[in-house]
Design the sequence.
């Protein structure tokens, strides 16, 4: 799952919330796929968790800054 690196600081708050919802849904789907059978791409769930953490960190930094 290669994607170009996005600059989260340039995104608006609602865009970050939408991205977070999409990433969390993808993580949920992958987690349930892994339960039933061996996952072909093990690193995909790790990458998604890191992306979610990055978005949450940016949202938290904005809320503290205000």
Sequence:
């Amino acid at each position: 799952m290669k994607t170009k690196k996005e600059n989260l600081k340039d995104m608006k708050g609602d865009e970050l919330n939408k991205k977070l919802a999409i990433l969390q849904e993808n993580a949920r789907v992958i987690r349930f796929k892994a339960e039933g059978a061996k996952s072909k791409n093990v690193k995909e769930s790790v990458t998604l968790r890191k992306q979610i953490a990055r978005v949450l960190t940016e949202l938290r930094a904005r809320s503290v800054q205000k």
